[in-house]
Amino acid sequence: MSAPKNTFKQALINGDRQIGCWSSFAEPIATEIMGTAGFDWLVIDGEHAPNDIRSIRDQLMALAASPSHPVVRVPVGETAKIKMVLDVGAQTILVPIVESAEQAQELVRACRYPPKGLRGVGAGAARATGYGSVADYIQTADAQICLLVQVENRAGMAALDDILTVDGIDGVFIGPADLSTDMGYQGNSAAPEVQATIADAITRIKAAGKAPGILGTNDQANQTYMDMGAQFLAVGIDVMLLAQAARALAAKWRAK
Q1: Between β-strands 69-73 and 171-174, what pairing exists: parallel, antiparallel or unpaired?
Q2: How far apart are the C-alpha atoms of 51 and 70, rounded to whole Å?
Q3: What is the pLDDT of residues 129-167, one digit of tens each?
Q4: What is the pTM of this model?
Q5: Strand positions, DSSP E, 6-99
Q6: Which residues are annotated as catalytic?
Q7: Surface-to-core class of residue 141, CB atoms within 10 Å of its CB (0-12 exposed, 13-18 middle, 19+ buried)
Q8: How far, in Å, CA of 235 to CA of 220, rounded?
Q9: Residue 56: burial class (beta carbons within 10 Å; 0-12, 13-18, 19+)
């Protein structure tokens, strides 16, 4: 047996648009529910949600029967953290705050087995190999790993063209909130200068043959990013969806 085919990675290669959503509750049941909604991909967020390796593993298990592909965002691009996430079964990794081609190259190495990489060869008893049932996992895993890097500040934007030359980077995700704040707009990603920077970055990413991605949290932003050419687009955050729906429902009936 070989490593499972990464359908999300193949969709990016094919140029297919992938619509996703953030999963920030850090609870398997909530993630399992999100997996029934029909999104192409879901982010299990290890940066801003209260996740650890066990909760990430449990959410990967919760999505095992879902058509939604799990994308795990690690809290930081450290080889040890990436190794753990891969061993519990993640095939697509999202790494925040990437600012140089050298950093991107190290992330590629973290996702690959020797001699091309640094990934520890100890997954025989891990979930990634079906607890040893996928006999050819080590020989076939590298080709199915999808690495997405986040460019979300001025330093990253300045290094974007260099980052795009790194073989093994499948997509570049733009973080609009961080980018706008670093540009002096304090989270206002709708500011014209920020929007121009995002549009230019998406154009450059596509021209380099990589997939551009981004997160929007309202219909206007999502449509704008879609029109700019975002290929993997997250259109919401589960915590915000619940909060907005609950507040609207309470306000509606308290006003009666």
Answers
A1: unpaired
A2: 14
A3: 999 999 999 999 999 999 999 999 999 999 999 999 999
A4: 0.96
A5: 18-23, 41-45, 69-73, 92-95
A6: 48
A7: buried
A8: 10
A9: buried
